[in-house]
Specification:
about 20% strand, single chain, mainly beta
Length: about 110
């Protein structure tokens, strides 16, 4: 699976990181929390989100706020402007275009 017309490799497809006959060594900062849930609903037009758990993210990094409705196009790529002392309240550099709900529905 991949982009239409993308080259498909046998048994692995077109979305992969693959090494044949070698080693893959990846470097980067270990991140204890790579994703989390919203602690409260983030309304469209606001630029603050509150998270369920503390993160080690920093201003200048990008974050994706996933869609919470039925339209995946409501996911938003945002730039972190600042994070409060609890590391749970993030101020974004722009306002959210869509509302992102914190509650789960059964």
């Amino acid at each position: 699976m991949g982009l239409q017309g993308a080259k498909q490799l046998p048994s692995v497809g077109s979305k992969m990181i693959a090494v044949y006959g070698g080693n893959l060594i990846a470097h980067g900062k270990p991140r204890p929390v790579t994703w989390t849930r919203l602690a409260s609903t983030a309304a469209a037009g606001t630029n603050t989100i509150t998270l369920n758990e503390a993160v080690d993210w920093v201003a200048g990094e990008k974050v994706i706020i996933a869609a919470t409705g039925f339209d995946h196009n409501e996911s938003e790529l945002m730039l972190i402007q600042s994070i409060d002392a609890t590391n749970k309240v993030i101020t974004l550099s722009a306002n959210l275009e869509y509302t992102h709900y914190a509650a789960t529905q059964n």
